[in-house]
Amino acid sequence: MLQKIDAKYFDGKTSKKQSVSIEFFKNRSVKVEGDGVVFVESFDNLAISSRVANTPRMITFADESIAYSSSNDAIDSVVKELNNTRSIAYLLESKMRYALLFVVLLVLSVIFFLTTGSDLIAKSIAKITPQILREEISTQTLEMMDEYLLEPSLLSVEQKDRFQTLFSELTNQEAGFHLHFRRGIGPNAFALPSGDIVLMDELVELSDGEDKMIYGVLAHEVGHVKHKHSMQLIVKVSIVNIIIAYFTGDISSTVASVGTTMLHANYSREFESQADHYAKIQMIKAGIEPKYLAEFFVKIETNSSEDQSYHYFDSHPSNQERIDALLAPIERRL
Fold first, then answer.
1. Which is nearest to 133 in space by CA: 266, 20, 10, 249?
2. Pairing of strands 57-60, 189-191
3. φ/ψ bin of 108: left (φ > 0), alpha (ψ from -120 to 50), beta (otherwise)
4. Is 184 left (phi over 0), alpha (psi -120 to 50) or beta?
5. What separation in angstroms does the CA of 333 have from each of 300, 315, 330?
């Protein structure tokens, strides 16, 4: 055996993450083994991502399942031993003149991003961002917000259980989605890139605990996750930090700006329309009339005009067009 590394494995069929070991052998065979996972693959069938500093490497197998591992030195050793070419990115880091050229190209790319290409680039980056990175950003972001912005929820166990049941029904217990309860920033709810949804006590109080309204709000936030809106927004407002995080493996500078971004998201009209439409479809599937979400929008907008502490529409701009869209019948194709 040449090398044995630890990795996080995704089978490509579900979002379930499994811890596995990957063994590389001189005969060019590769064995993957973990809890409920065991198979042997030819090294020639693998696609190993280029090395970029200390960020996790992605190993893609023939069946399109993937694994992420931070054992970069061990992977480089295997690649070299089996006569594979060293990664282009690693060579660039080893050659100063190429590194300088890379910096120039990076600066030009950032300028392009900040001018005409921000939406396109943000959408592209959000689409290819690995779930493991989205989870790490979201975990650290929530920890930071808990320390400086949020307070523990005062909802009763019965209320939490009831809303958790609604959320489980909405997401069909899909892996990656988690509901959190907090208070302290007014009637609000927001979605982190990983699928973590945070529901504030104040929002529950404003809705009088009406399950159908809460279901609509949660469905709206899940819609943002499904369309990767929060990840796109994070990329747009912190592109420089995202690039630094990608090439150094240090996401602390990114996390520092994400909390504020999530609270004052200022989603575009397109993003809000997509999230509203997703919520509308899910409510209809659940036998709930979309009017309950529309009524909640009206209620919170009315209250926000009287009390400046209401922040939900800071990130969810209300307008009659959105309410009308929720109340409009679904067009059916003949």
1. 249
2. unpaired
3. alpha
4. left
5. 34, 33, 10
Residue at 122: amino acid letter: A
Q: In terms of pTM, does the model score above 0.85?
A: no
3-90 belongs to CATH 2.40.10.350: no
* CB-based contacts of 26, cutoff 8 Å, min separation 6: 1, 2, 81
Q: Where in the chain is the domain with CATH 2.30.29.30?
A: 3-90
Local confidence pLDDT in tens for the 334 residues of the chain: 889 999 999 887 877 788 999 999 988 899 999 988 999 999 989 989 887 767 788 899 998 899 999 999 999 888 888 765 445 445 555 555 666 776 777 777 766 655 656 677 778 888 888 888 888 888 888 888 888 789 999 999 999 999 999 999 999 989 889 999 999 988 889 999 999 999 999 999 999 889 999 999 999 999 999 999 888 887 776 665 555 555 555 555 555 555 545 544 556 778 888 999 999 999 999 999 999 999 998 887 787 655 544 555 544 545 678 888 899 987 654 3
